[in-house]
Amino acid sequence: MAAALPSRAACLERAESSDEGFSQCAAFTDFFGRVNQEVISSMSQDYLSRVREEQPLAIRTTAPSFGRLTLNVQEVLSVSRQRLGGFVSNGLIRVTAGCNGTTLQQLFTYRCSEAHLGDAEHSGAGAEGCALGAGAAVRRRGLELTVPRPLQGPLDLGGLMHALSAWTSSAVKSLAASAAAAPPLAAVLGRLAGQAAGATALPLKLSGVDLTSFFGQEALEKELATHVGLFSLTSAVMFIGSIRGLNKHSTAQEGNIVGILATALGILSVVASPGFHGLNRFTITFLLAGTLGYSIAANVQMEEMPQLVAGFHSFVGLAAVSAGFASFFNPGAHFLTLRAIETFAGTAIGALTFTGSVVAAGKLHGTISGAPIVLENRWALNIAGALSSLALGLAFTNPAVYASSMGTACLLANTAIWGFLGTNMVLPIGGADMPVVISLLNACSGLATSAAGFMLSNQLLTITGALVASSGTLLSDIMCRGINRSMSNVLLGGFGTDGGVAVGPDGGAGGTVNEVSAMGFVDLLASAKRVVIVPGYGLAVARCQQRLAEIVLLLRQHKVHVHFAIHPVAGRLPGHMNVLLAEADVPYDIVREMEDINREMPQYDVAIVVGANDIVNPATQTDPNSPIYGMPAVEVWRCKTCIVLKRSMGTGYSGVDNPLFYLDNVRMFFGDARQSMDTVLHLLQESQERFRSLGAATPDSTGRRDQLRETREEYPVACKVVGVVRERGAGERRVSVTPGAVAKLRRMGFSVLFEAGAGLAAGFSDEEYLREGGVQVAESAVEVLKQADVILKVTAPMLDEVQVLQSSQTMVGFWNMHGVQDLMEALGQSQATFVNLSLIPRISRAQRLDALTSMANVAGYRAVIDAFSHLPRFSRSSVTACGAVPPAKVLVIGAGVAGLSAIATAHALGAKVYANDVREAAREQVESMGAEFVPVDAPGVAGEGVGGYASEMGQAFKEAQLATYARLVPDMDIVISTAMIPNREAPKLLTEEMLRSMRRGSVVVDLAAQTGGNCTSTEKDKVVVTPDGITVIGETNYPSQMPGQASEMLGNNFVALLEALGGAADFGGAHWDDQVIQQATVTREGQVLWPPTPLPADTPPLPARASPSPEAGQASGGVPPAVPAEVSRVIAWLEEHKAEIALGLGAATVLGLGLATNIPEAELTHIGYFVLSCLIGHFTVAGVTPALHTPLISVTNAISGIIVVGGMLQLSGPLLSARVACALAAVFLSSVNIVGGFAVTHRMLQMFKQDSPQ
Fold first, then answer.
1. Residues acting as catalytic residues
2. What is the Cα–Cα distance from 1200 to 1173, expressed in whole angstroms?
3. What is the mean pLDDT of residues 905-913?
4. What's the mean per-residue pLDDT of the chain?
5. What CA–CA distance (Å, rounded) separates 624 from 385?
6. Inter-residue contact 949 to 942 (CB < 8 Å)
7. Residue ranges of the Alanine dehydrogenase/pyridine nucleotide transhydrogenase N-terminal domain (predicted)?
8. Per-residue pLDDT tens over the stretch 1217-1233
9. One-character DSSP codes across 745-789
10. Cα-based angle 620, 624, 627 (whole degrees, multiple of 5)
């Protein structure tokens, strides 16, 4: 670097002083910065003269600021003489500085010059001279030092060497700064520093910090603070990279290593911090805790991973509490209101995380019952705790209270309160909801870490905690979507049982259970070409993954394609099943996600369900009244054959029976899963030759074998005839029995008498029926009506049909009982028996008979499709070059079966859906389908009627209801009305005034048109366009627009009814006394039985929830204690206005803090870091593959252990002081978390192996 030149005036004043002029005009750059003036001042005229003579010279001097300094002219390269006695000399100079036993060296090139300028020369001096006045004569001397060119080469590599040099320098200096705690280390570092500088001559830093200032304590601390900030920022960025590494299996291990390095760098940032004096305390504590954490991680079973993760979460929470108390006990801290709030909130979040995690771990381990445990007066206790905490917080922020013993009491009391709230939050949540809870506690541990960062003004903690919090929050949302429930619903608790609730004789879905033997199981596997396996929590309980993996290996060796289908919430931890399978050496590339496998499910020959129940329940898609309706499921019922391994017919966590077990293509294999797997594996190994002969079949031979099996199936001798007639109603295209149902009827001992052409309108030819066997074709309906014992019809009986029937015959139809007086008179005069499927009660065991649900499901779907076909607007939002298009707004009135189906369809089409129902119980179902529930402002009124239907409301409620619709309808594009009261005229809900208020082109679909309609402009089976351009559709038979699928669904309902009536051999008799059959029987042997006696009040037809008794804490099918009405209304209002509330709270918080406190700039920076880190964490975690969710939780759990920094910063002080004791506790707990978390993550990731080529 060239020496700085003096100004013109300065040159004139100093022209006669050669030494002063030399010292002021010369400067050079060393490895720490610019050399002080006194270095140049020590260079004498004698030095310059000897350099002129090319004589190397070593000058030793003692500079006042930094001790001994040696300037050694090592080599003179060249000397050139100039006019007037001037010269220029070039060479090498070695600068050696020594201080306190530390020696630092650097080699430079120098250029020493002396020029005499007179009148003739000064004007041409340019940059090398001084601007002098006329007639002046000056003598100018200069010295320039630069880094040798060979050392400058690497610095051209994009600044990489600069950064590396800076970090290396900081590391050496930071460790040297800890010499007070470890004197031997200082001596070693001093020797190494001297040797390194002399050996490499590497410029460690070129930042402009002068050598003198470097050795000053104040400048040293400033310099270290700069690099501490670099370490912290780098550590935070590496944590982001660590999480991103889990996006795929191939980079997951590297991501874990990056997380370890980031944690080490974060710890180093504290060790390098000025004033850190707790190295010995930290080292000993970290080693002890790390040993414990590693021991836990190395010995834990993978089945116990959920409780281990919950336990580690509790360590983070308790560490946050300890760090908060350590900060509070700091005697040198000054009171700041904002700091007090941060301490108060940080300890509260930590306490909630600690106790909630402990309870979760207890539930997962079995120490605490996995069933929901609801404390008496739970809500009152929660509200009282929140209010008490608020009062304590106000007192704690008072400076006088904060400084007294009352401050300690307030902090302790608040910690206890939030500890109780954490316990009361997790206790009511059932075991199968633990994936949501674990993810939520993961988010809480991140918040606790961020709170410690705010409290201690540490950006690393703030950023890292925000990353972990966003990770846990996103995982919680994923888990909630996996069970089709909202976060608030999960936290309300009380849902489900402990699993395995026995189903009594009347408690099942009805039907026959088909069992399979172990040898039959092996035969099915041997003849299969594609097998899918669905593991559930029972796999973890039985610990049979190793045996299952051996079976899979054996199947794959015989060229059977095997895949695993993983449900997002299977097990007790996100990704739990993936870890268990990886432990058993199952290749991760044959483990597939639910969405992928469902699309290909019909292609699999055999599906094996191991220890799963609710996640394979067809009711999730077919029964809107089920508490698990809408939950994504693995659709194993679509396979050719499904084998379910279970101990018994007990229910799953939801407490409802599983209709899957009664399907014709399902076989039950009862017994302990581990023993069952052992038996199957043993039989497979013993039957290698037979296995190969069956498994070696080509696809064509497999198809022939299936056909042979079918032809060899023996049916019982038919003893009764089922008649199927062609539907003669206008526009009716359905048929009561499809070809696929013929075999089911034959197995029950029925033959089929079929009117020619009865199935043509539905897409089924007579030849398809005849191929099934046991079918006779009649030429007319009269022939069928006279010969059949049971006649099945899609619609109501016609009067001429009724007159033909005899007393021994039974007719089963499906019709609405409103406005059928003439038909009822005819039925009463007939001696035959008439059953109406639309009257089947909506209870769990009657689900398979519920034709109303089947048809209403189709009607709701078709209503939305029909509405959008008439709507001249988009259904979804879109953004184009010409502007944005908003989504269509759809209002669904009535959230019954049809309403829920309409909601799901409209939501899938991208519309904004609103829904209303008089039953408050429908709110949860509506919201689970993605719609916004709009209540009627009539508190205290329940619209729940008998059988799960709506009841007729009072006049006051009707007026409030109409006012609500009048407010909503003008803003809607489509209104779908489904409000009906069973067997009564539909209420009028949409008036002419409401229609006139709608936009032109809007559409109204009235699904209640058959019973008069909800709209005053509805005309049955017509499409009406009002003068204002509103289309009103009054279609009454939407299922007939999908005749094939609707017929299959309805045919299954008819088959289930005949099965409930005893089949052909035991038809009728005592079965007529069954409550389900009684409700649906209209007349029998001339006696009118409708309306029937209502079902008992204690038979809940709509099992919204099933949970254990809170007192006993045991699994049962009872209903949990009801949430108080006030709480329900508050929660409903919060859910409805959550966006506005979030915006308002955010604005109020910012405004309130701005007005009440003087927020330092550093705090604002912390808030900015926190918000940005949350966003970055969200997008980073969103890319993580679901198979690695368990390692993700584990690694974020370890990352949250960076709260160790909070303890390290407070280790100074007397060892027995409260502050140091709390700090040591924080360090110990978080160190266990760090080492254990990263170690168990490494262990899990090592288990994931890719499939090797076969």
1. 614
2. 14
3. 91
4. 76
5. 38
6. no
7. 723-859
8. 888 899 899 999 999 98
9. HHHTTEEEEEETTTTTTTT--HHHHHHTSSEEEESSHHHHHHH-S
10. 65
Q: Which CATH number fits domain 858-1042: 3.40.50.720, 3.40.50.800, 3.90.79.10, 3.40.50.300?
A: 3.40.50.720
**pLDDT > 70 in the chain, percent:** 71
In the CATH scheme, what architecture does the domain 720-847+1045-1088 have?
3-Layer(aba) Sandwich (3.40)
Q: What is the pLDDT of residues 14-62, one digit of tens each?
A: 433 434 333 333 333 333 333 334 344 444 444 545 554 444 444 444 4
Asked whether the predicted pLDDT for residue 116 surpasses 80, the reply is: no
User: In terms of residues, how long is the chain?
Assistant: 1254
User: Do residues 331 and 1219 lie in contact, with contact meaning Cβ atoms separated by under 8 Å?
Assistant: yes
Give 894-947 as a DSSP string: --SHHHHHHHHHHHHTT-EEEEE-S-TTHHHHHHHTTPEE---S-TT---B-GG
Per-domain residue ranges of the chain? 218-494+1139-1247, 518-663, 720-847+1045-1088, 858-1042
Q: How confident is the model at residue 120 (pLDDT cuts 50, 70, 90)?
A: very low
User: What's 514's DSSP letter?
Assistant: P
**pLDDT for the residue numbered 870:** 95
Which pair of tokens denotes residue 109? Answer: 């090139």
Task: Strand 530-535: give its sheet, edge to edge.
Answer: 591-593, 561-566, 530-535, 606-610, 641-646, 666-670
According to DSSP, residue 522 is labeled H
Q: How many CA atoms lie within 13 A of 963 on its CB side?
A: 9
Q: Which fold has domain 518-663?
A: Rossmann fold (3.40.50)
DSSP output for 24-65: HH-EEB-SSSBPPHHHHHT--HHHHHHHHTT---EEEEEETT
**Helices first, then strands: H and E counts in the chain:** 46, 29
- When computed from its CA atoms, the radius of gyration of the chain, rounded to whole angstroms, is 41
Q: Mutual orientation of helices 545-557 and 673-686 as an angle, nearest 10°? A: 30
Distance CA 266, CA 228 (A): 9
The Cα-based distances of 511 to 744, 1059, 1062, 1063 in angstroms read: 12, 7, 10, 11
Structure-token pair, residue 48: 């310059």
Instruction: Give the tens place of pLDDT for each residue, 691-722.
Output: 555 544 444 444 444 443 444 467 888 899 99
Kind and range of the H or E element at 444? Answer: helix 434-456
| Residue 87 to residue 113: CA distance in whole angstroms | 6
CA torsion sign for 690, 695, 701, 704 is positive
- Strand pairing category for 790-792 and 67-81: unpaired
**Cα–Cα dist 472/450, whole Å:** 14
SS3 for 1125-1186, per residue?
A: HHHHHHHHHHHHCHHHHHHHHHHHHHHHHHHHCCCCHHHHHHHHHHHHHHHHHHHHHHCCCH
189-193, 300-304, 779-783 — most confident range: 779-783
Strand partners, 105: 96
Torsion of CA 475, 478, 480, 483, to 10 degrees: -130
Classify each residue of 682-710 as buried b or exposed e, where b means 16 or more C-beta atoms within 10 Å of its C-beta.
Answer: ebbeebeeebeebbeeeeeebeeeeeeee
Find the helix or strand (DSSP H, E) in which 791 lies.
strand 790-792
Q: With both helix axes pointing from N to C terminus, report the angle between 1138-1156 and 1125-1136 in degrees, rounded to the nearest 10.
A: 90
| Cβ neighbours for 950, distance < 8 A, ≥ 6 positions apart | 894, 896, 917, 918, 919, 943, 944, 979, 980, 981
Residue 878 and residue 985: Cα distance in Å, rounded?
A: 41
Given CA atoms 270, 272, 274, 280 in this order, what sign does their dihedral have? positive
Nearest-angstrom CA–CA distance, 235 and 1198: 14
User: pTM (2 decimals)?
Assistant: 0.55
Sheet holding 750-755, edge to edge: 775-778, 750-755, 720-724, 790-792, 810-813, 833-836, 1081-1084, 1087-1088
**Do the first three CATH levels of 518-663 and 720-847+1045-1088 match, i.e. the same topology?**
yes
